[in-house]
Write a structure and sequence with these properties.
Blueprint (H helix, E strand, L loop, with lengths): L1 E4 L16 E5 L2 E2 L4 H9 L5 E7 L2 E7 L6 E3 L19 E7 L4 E6 L4 H5 L1 H7 L3 H17 L1 H29 L3 E8 L2 H11 L4 E2 L4 H9 L1
Parallel strand pairs: 8-10
Antiparallel strand pairs: 1-6, 2-3, 2-4, 4-5, 7-8, 7-9
Helix pairs in contact: 3-4, 4-5
Length: 220
């Protein structure tokens, strides 16, 4: 199966799916079926499946809970890779990659880590979201002046708020830095997300990498 087109309004847009993406594996196993077979796998996956597509000369995996990704068309199946191993989608997260025209990029998970809900100020600092962090610190401080219990309530409310709004804050901040949406990659860890993206774009550099490393990479 191949995506013929990914018009506006289809879920594939938010996952960075592109026209020509050809399904090669589902949950790590080679796939040679039709749309009905894909739906059967999705129904048996318990919510989400890891969909691997061939994009140019590379493979990209995304987590999806729908097949309403775009307009599908049947194409001859690609040669199966006997080395494939099953992937449990429960252990993966979608990571969104944003990129600038100069090749600098950043990435972040679509699902907020549990630690970020417990320590929202620390997570905001790690993500370089300075303005939201300053606002939260000020709100917690003001709550502490009124009553320590109020400060705890503000702190807890911030964690709940971030759970649904963290991606918006990150996108707004990164757009202000000149980055725009590039793609989505489903992997387990941030290190794997960087490795997967660099496999697609070897010349690109992490926007927050130390200046010395960025300079070395440019001269390499």
């Amino acid at each position: 199966m191949q995506l013929k087109d990914v018009p506006a309004g289809f879920a594939g847009r938010a996952l960075g799916m592109r026209s020509g993406d050809t399904v090669v594996a589902v949950n790590g196993r080679g796939f040679r079926g039709d749309l009905a077979a894909l739906q059967t796998v999705l129904s048996g996956s318990g919510g989400e499946m890891a969909l691997t597509v061939q994009r140019g000369g590379s493979e990209v995996t995304v987590l999806t809970d729908t097949l309403h990704l775009g307009r599908w068309e049947a194409v001859p199946a690609l040669a199966d890779d006997a080395s494939r191993r099953r992937i449990d989608p429960a252990f993966l997260r979608n990571w969104e990659v944003m990129r600038a025209v100069d090749g600098s990029y950043d990435l972040f998970p679509h699902r907020l880590p549990a630690t970020a809900m417990l320590l929202p100020q620390l997570w905001l600092m790690q993500m370089r979201l300075w303005l939201p962090c300053a606002m939260l610190v000020a709100a917690v401080t003001a709550g502490m002046i009124v009553h320590p219990a109020l400060a705890l309530v503000v702190h807890a409310a911030a964690g709940v708020h971030l759970r649904s709004m963290h991606a918006m804050y990150l996108r707004l901040d990164r757009r202000a830095r000149g980055l725009s949406f590039q793609t989505v990659l489903a992997v387990r860890t941030e290190a794997q997300a960087h490795a997967a993206y660099r496999a697609l774009q070897p010349e690109d550099q992490y926007i927050f990498a130390p200046a010395a490393k960025r300079h070395e990479a440019v001269n390499a």
